[in-house]
Each structure stands twice: as structure tokens, then as C-alpha cells.
Backbone:
């Protein structure tokens, strides 16, 4: 009996579990998955909670609803991987051995990395929306807020869902307009990037959206600390930005378990081959989703494209062949832009987001880098697709590798 | 492909405006690159960072991120920003004749 062990039952781990439970012969393979939590969070939904569009109930389901039959599920924290021993130690003192390992432990925010961020004002005037607790606390705050300076700050890159901060300020513009108090709210987007987004074309188009929506933009801002007393953020080069409410995207890091295993970089992300998704230095370990150091976006849609590639490469490797499928860095992100509209971007390692049309059989086409109602429906549909198709490892009508069809150069 | 003239030599640049061939680099060129980045004089701490960057590049095949820099170069974040204003990792990589650190989105 051969053993496949999957660490983390979030978006990526659950997808892989479903794909392999269906594919691998249960007389030859035992599949085990480990996660510390019993609840699955639909993280893309966190964005909508502060604005009262979703509540906590809309973004959670029990993980067990998505586990196939015939696999072993263990609910426990993971202490560490001992990759040379092909062994994993759990916090419940169990020791698991494996023939093949898939690491899918994601990434999380670490506000303690920045001086003063998790201080006195945390969840009073400083909020995150990358956790369900943060998003819910912010929803309560906004309900009674009378306006002032709203500053959104990205601490450092990379972050998961790199478009979420932009969506947040677009939705804030829409939310405060609809509440008739937009004139009382100053929205300020403060980023370490040289523009609204990383890639040049999208950055300039999305930057235009910011100015059209009267949202100010400060670029190349690297926060050093938060001055809680005077409600200011201060950069390493001593530029101060005052706030009444600070929406922070704290440093994103891989789980400490990766550090304990000696398998991570400075941010506990796992050095992984950009194309094959095999962990550098091992021929029986794959990594997928937000826990890798790949220069692709950390997003559920990206993990979905990676899952198709990992699946094929895994089957090659267990047959003793070289992995043949290559991940191209494909990302496909709906950007909520407020007032019931959205923007779509589609790109990969080599091709930046371009304007044009995005054909989708049966549903599309969607407009790329333009604000449309259709793109907003795409985002809303994503939640249904996520729960009903994506997590269950079913086929979506989207190719894993990016296509140039419809794009304008 | 764009180029730059330094000391009578024409050097190729990559798409980010960094030296295309790291073997073209020498200390004289670093001083000129620094000037074009608004750093008139390179002091001992600047060199400590630049040499560390080049060492990591040879060992790892990529320029280190700002986090790795502060963790291992012996120069803290505050000082790094004072030495290389507006993006120490990016700027010091350029002056060290290396490609831009692998950005992530
Ligand atoms: C606000 C927000 C908006 C987003 N919007 C979008 C969007 O619109 N579209 C999109 O595609 N993506 C979006 N994303 C990103 C998407 O949610 C993630 O990229 C995706 O969930 C990553 O999947 P993953 O499996 O790598 O990690 P996760 O889904 O985070 O799963 C990791 C799992 O590992 C477990 N784990 C970690 N460490 C341990 C340990 N030591 N012991 C036991 N268990 C452990 C965790 O409990 C967790 O269940 C958004 C994210 C956020 C926060």
C-alpha cells in the first residue's frame, strides 16, 4: 500500500484530495489529509463582509462536506515535516509516514511583523479584512462610523489575492456613496508597489479607476511602524500618513510549521519549481497554492490551475517518469469595482493583463480591464463555483494554461 | 535593448534598466550607476550591502529580497532605507549590477 499525505485542507488541499481520491486505486493507495480546523472559510467572501454584503454565515461550511469517501481525515495541528525521513509529526503526537507528500498549508497575516500594528488600536481603529474576525469587526465599526480619513495600507508584498485591496477601496467608495456620506470619507490607497498594481498596463488602467473614483494613491510606501497615539503610519523614510481608520494588509507569511521544518524562505514560503510544482530538492514532495514561493498570484483561481498541473505531474512521477506538465503562472481574477460592476484580468508569468475580451464557453465573453455588470456577476458566481465545483475537483470550463484569444496587444 | 555609456564603454541594459550582463560590472561602474540613482558617494555601508547582494546572487542565482537583506547583510532596515532611499532592494540590486529582485504579485 502506498501513502499519499496532504497537509492542509483549504482550497488547494481539498481540491487535490478530491482529484486523487477519484483517480488512485484504493487497493493500492491510502490517502490522508490533515488540517487543524473543521471549518472551511470561503476567503474571497471576506471582502464583502465589512460592507454588509455577506455575513459570517455566507462564508463558512464544514470541511467534511467536501471530503470524499474512503480517505483518512485527521484534525490536528501539524508540528513539522521531516522531509529526509518522509515523516510528518502532528501536534496530537501522531507520527505519519508517506511515500508522496503534497503541502497546501496556505499563507496568513502576521500583524506582529510591524511595530505598533497589533497595538492598542487593533480592532478599534485598525482592522484587517483577511481574517473572518477582522472582517466582522470592521463591519461593526463601519455601521456606526461617521466618516474621516480611511487609509488602506499594504505592508509588503507578496500578499494573497493582490487585487483584494483595490477591490476594498472601490467597494468603500460605493458603500459610503450609497449611505450618502461619501463627502465625509477620504479614501487613501497606500502601497509599496510603484503603481496601483504590479504589471504596467493593468497598473495604469486601475490607477485611472482610482482617480475617477476620487481615491488618492501613494506608491512606493514602505511602512515601518504605526504611531498609535497620534494615529499615523510612518514609513522607513519617515513619511507620516494620518488616519482615522486604518485598513491594513499585514505581512503575509507561510505557516510557522514550514519554518520548524526548515523548508521555507524568509517569509516561510516553500521554494518550489515554477513549472512542475515540485518542492526544490525533493522528488516526492509537491507544493500548491499560497504556501509556495512561486511568482504567480496567491489566489484560489490560481491554485485551481495549479491543481490540474500537479495532478498530471504526480501521475508521471509515480510512474517513474519526469513530470511533463508545466504551470504557466495563469491567473484569472475578477475585481469588484463597486456599484454592481466588476473588472476582469487574465494573465500569466510572461503575459501581463491585457485589455480585450475573455471568451468563456456557455457564459462569456467577459470584458478584460473594463468595468461591466457581467464581470460583477462573474465574481458573484465564483462563490457558487467555489463550493460546488472547484473544491470538489470538478472540471471547470477554463483552460489551466492562459490563452491569447480575445486579448488586444 | 537599451544601453548605457560608462567610462567609454557601452553596456547593455535589461527591460528594467539593470545591467544585462553581470560580468560587465566593476566598482567604477557601481559608482556611476549609484550617481544615476541619486547617490553621489558610496560609503562603507553601501559597499557592505552591494557586496552582500553580489555574494547572494552568485550563491542563489537571484537578488535577495529586502527581508533577506535585513536579516543577513548586517545592515538594519532603517539604515538600508537611509542608504538607498525608495526601495533599498531594487536600488542596491541595480547598483550591484544585478537584475531586479524577483518581484511577486
Ligand atoms: C480577503 C481575501 C479575498 C480573496 N479573494 C479571492 C478571489 O476573489 N479570488 C480568488 O481566486 N482568490 C481569492 N483569495 C485567495 C484565496 O482565498 C487563497 O488564495 C486560497 O484560499 C489559497 O488556498 P490554499 O489551499 O493555498 O490555502 P488555504 O485555503 O488558506 O488553506 C490552508 C489550510 O492549511 C491549514 N493549515 C496551515 N497550517 C497548518 C498547521 N500547522 N496545522 C494544521 N493545518 C494547517 C489551514 O488551517 C487551512 O485550512 C482571497 C483571499 C482573501 C484573504
Residues:
Amino acid at each position: 500500500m502506498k501513502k499519499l499525505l496532504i497537509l492542509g485542507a483549504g482550497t488547494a488541499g481539498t481540491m487535490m484530495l478530491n482529484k486523487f481520491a477519484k483517480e488512485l486505486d484504493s487497493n493500492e493507495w491510502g490517502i490522508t489529509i490533515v488540517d487543524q480546523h473543521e471549518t472551511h472559510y470561503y476567503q474571497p467572501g471576506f471582502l464583502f463582509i465589512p460592507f454588509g454584503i455577506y455575513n459570517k454565515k455566507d462564508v463558512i461550511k464544514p470541511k467534511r462536506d467536501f471530503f470524499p469517501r474512503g480517505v483518512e481525515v485527521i484534525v490536528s495541528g501539524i508540528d513539522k515535516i521531516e522531509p529526509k525521513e518522509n515523516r510528518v509529526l502532528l501536534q496530537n503526537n501522531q507520527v505519519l509516514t508517506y511515500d508522496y507528500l503534497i503541502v497546501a498549508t496556505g499563507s496568513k497575516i502576521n500583524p506582529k511583523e510591524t511595530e505598533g500594528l497589533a497595538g492598542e488600536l487593533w480592532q478599534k481603529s485598525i482592522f484587517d479584512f483577511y481574517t473572518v474576525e477582522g472582517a466582522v469587526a470592521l463591519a461593526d465599526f463601519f455601521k456606526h462610523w461617521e466618516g474621516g480619513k480611511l487609509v488602506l495600507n499594504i505592508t509588503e508584498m507578496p500578499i494573497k489575492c493582490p487585487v483584494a485591496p483595490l477591490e476594498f477601496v472601490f467597494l468603500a467608495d460605493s458603500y459610503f456613496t450609497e449611505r450618502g456620506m461619501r463627502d465625509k470619507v477620504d479614501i487613501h490607497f497606500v502601497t509599496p508597489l510603484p503603481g496601483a498594481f504590479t504589471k504596467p498596463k493593468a497598473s495604469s488602467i486601475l490607477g485611472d479607476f482610482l482617480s475617477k473614483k476620487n481615491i488618492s494613491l501613494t506608491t512606493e510606501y514602505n511602512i515601518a511602524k504605526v504611531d498609535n497615539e497620534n494615529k499615523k503610519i510612518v514609513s522607513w523614510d519617515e513619511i507620516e500618513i494620518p488616519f482615522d481608520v486604518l485598513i491594513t494588509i499585514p505581512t503575509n507569511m507561510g505557516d510557522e510549521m514550514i519554518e520548524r521544518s526548515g523548508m521555507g524562505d524568509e517569509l516561510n514560503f516553500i521554494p518550489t519549481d515554477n513549472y512542475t510544482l515540485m518542492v526544490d530538492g525533493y522528488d516526492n514532495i509537491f507544493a500548491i497554492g499560497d504556501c509556495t514561493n512561486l511568482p504567480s498570484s496567491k489566489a484560489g483561481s490560481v491554485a485551481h490551475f495549479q491543481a490540474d498541473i500537479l495532478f498530471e505531474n504526480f501521475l508521471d512521477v509515480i510512474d517513474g517518469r519526469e513530470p511533463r506538465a508545466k504551470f504557466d503562472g495563469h491567473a484569472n481574477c475578477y475585481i469588484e469595482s463597486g456599484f454592481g460592476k466588476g473588472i476582469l484580468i487574465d494573465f500569466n508569468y510572461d503575459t501581463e493583463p491585457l485589455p480585450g475580451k475573455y471568451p468563456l464557453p456557455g457564459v462569456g465573453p467577459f470584458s478584460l480591464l473594463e468595468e461591466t455588470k457581467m464581470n460583477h456577476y462573474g465574481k458573484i458566481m465564483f462563490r457558487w463555483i467555489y463550493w460546488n465545483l472547484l473544491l470538489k475537483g470538478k472540471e471547470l470550463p477554463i483552460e489551466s494554461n492562459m490563452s491569447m484569444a480575445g486579448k488586444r496587444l | 535593448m537599451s544601453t548605457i555609456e560608462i567610462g567609454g564603454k557601452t553596456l547593455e541594459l535589461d527591460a528594467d534598466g539593470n545591467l544585462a550582463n553581470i560580468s560587465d560590472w566593476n566598482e567604477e561602474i557601481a559608482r556611476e550607476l549609484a550617481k544615476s540613482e541619486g547617490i553621489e558617494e558610496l560609503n562603507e555601508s553601501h559597499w557592505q550591502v552591494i557586496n552582500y547582494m553580489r555574494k547572494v546572487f552568485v550563491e542563489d542565482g537571484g537578488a535577495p529580497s529586502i527581508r533577506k537583506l535585513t536579516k543577513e547583510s548586517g545592515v538594519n532596515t532603517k539604515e538600508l532605507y537611509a542608504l538607498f532611499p525608495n526601495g533599498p532592494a531594487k536600488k542596491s540590486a541595480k547598483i550591484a549590477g544585478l537584475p531586479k529582485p524577483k518581484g511577486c504579485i
Notes: The longest strand of chain B covers residues 3-6. Chain B touches chain A through 17 residues (CB under 8 Å).
